[in-house]
Amino acid sequence: MPPKHPATSPAMSPSIAKKTRKSLTLEVKLDIIHRNKRGKKTNSIACHYGLTPSTVYHFQVSRLY
After folding, report:
1. Where is each HTH psq-type domain found (predicted)?
2. Closest CA to 42 of 31, 50, 53, 29
């Protein structure tokens, strides 16, 4: 049975960069929570910090526990 992908597929290319992870300071995390408590929308908070809305939502959910 032949392989599904050739050995030189673009996924194995060294020119494709890995995603970098951002580390957020405690002040930023607290500001995200406070902005949410004041009624700001998740998308507007995410745009302000250059994050994805799912990251901002994570802080909203973790605040409840």
Report:
1. 18-58
2. 53
Query: Are 48 and 38 a contacting pair, CB within 8 Å?
Result: no
Hey, what are 61's tokens?
Answer: 């959910």
Q: How far apart are CA 60 and CA 58, in angstroms?
A: 5
| 3-state class percentages of the chain: helix first, strand second, coil last, to nearest 5 | 50, 0, 50
In whole angstroms, give the CA distance from residue 59 to residue 50.
15
Residue tagged 């799912």 (tokens): 54
pLDDT in tens, 21-37: 888 999 999 999 999 99
- Cβ-based neighbour number of residue 60 at 10 Å: 14
